[in-house]
Amino acid sequence: MKKIILFDGECNFCDASVQFIIKRDTNKVFQFASLQSDIGKGLLNKYNAPENLDSFVLIDGDKYFLQSTAALRVCKDLKGAYKLLYFFVIVPKPMRNFVYQFIAKNRYKWFGKNESCMIPSPEDRQRFL
């Protein structure tokens, strides 16, 4: 079963993160949709996730994961040493999410904002919902 990553399509940092994942997801485990898209909103509704999210979301099977937990679970499926980052899941979630939220709160200021979602390359297009 494919895992779905919902991301902020207007965030430059989030777009760069999606590109980072695509390059290291050699087994093509992940599919992608922006939170702003109809598909993204529909998936949030289907999984009873909060609708006002502007966070990174991972849908895996019948569960969804948010913030640092989502990011660390993605690392587990990437090639190379990035799998080792999953080890940080032992850090208490409030501590992990404090760091995550600090970066998330400042992401537009530090990395900028797009007016629209990125256009994937032809070979990656089928991975976007």
TrEMBL record:
One GO molecular-function entry: protein-disulfide reductase activity
InterPro entries linked: DCC1-like, DCC_oxidoreductase
Lineage: superkingdom: Bacteria
Pfam families to which the protein is assigned, alphabetical: DCC1-like
PANTHER family per the UniProt record, alphabetical: DUF393 DOMAIN-CONTAINING PROTEIN (PTHR33639:SF2), THIOL-DISULFIDE OXIDOREDUCTASE DCC (PTHR33639)
Name of protein: Predicted DCC family thiol-disulfide oxidoreductase YuxK
Biological source species: Ureibacillus acetophenoni
Organism taxonomic ancestry: Bacteria, Bacillati, Bacillota, Bacilli, Bacillales
